[in-house]
Amino acid sequence: MSEEASVSRRRFLAVATSVTGAVGLAMTAAPFIASFRPSARAQALGAPVEVDISKLETGSMVRVQWRGQPVWILKRSKEMLELLGNHGDKLRDPDSMESIQPAYAANATRSIRPEILVVIGTCTHLGCAPIEKLQPADAELGADWPGGFFCPCHGSKFDLAGRVYAGVPAPTNLVVPPYRFVGDTMIIVGEDTGASA
Questions:
Q1: Which of 154, 166, 167, 194 is catalytic?
Q2: What is the pLDDT of residues 56-96, one digit of tens each?
Q3: What is the DSSP letter of 110?
Q4: 154 an active-site residue?
Q5: What CATH class is the domain 46-189?
């Protein structure tokens, strides 16, 4: 075998060995690198939730889960919206100054669109689950009840904007999560891109 053929053969073997080693290293490293990604369960817990509200009737509510928390989406009627301005003197935080909500929901209706309320359905006192008492003058809550949410655990009351009444254990209004609208009939809970309508 000539000297030239021997050098050529050594180069070929060196390149082949290097390529084989690089492929083996990549195949060994791939599972290790993949282990740094969050699991499917972890991704699902924090992932935004799409909610179709096209069939949501006025005066009714839909419930979804986001990050392990119940989220309520209420389609308020014109009458419900009118009731929001009639009891500000009975509320602990009527202007939502001490409560948690995105800037675009820091208004009288606590929402991007007045007719659609999006809140986390957990009492801000001890995390109990309030029940909806949407009709005014509820027999259990009295003739002056304007409609809203009632926590039977310790008696906290929230109006139709999720604002807490004074004199109840809950310290703040119901939390408004980040959300946005996609068109007229889709809400994405968990994405905060400002007040797109």
A1: 154
A2: 999 999 999 999 899 999 999 999 999 888 888 899 888 88
A3: S
A4: yes
A5: mainly beta
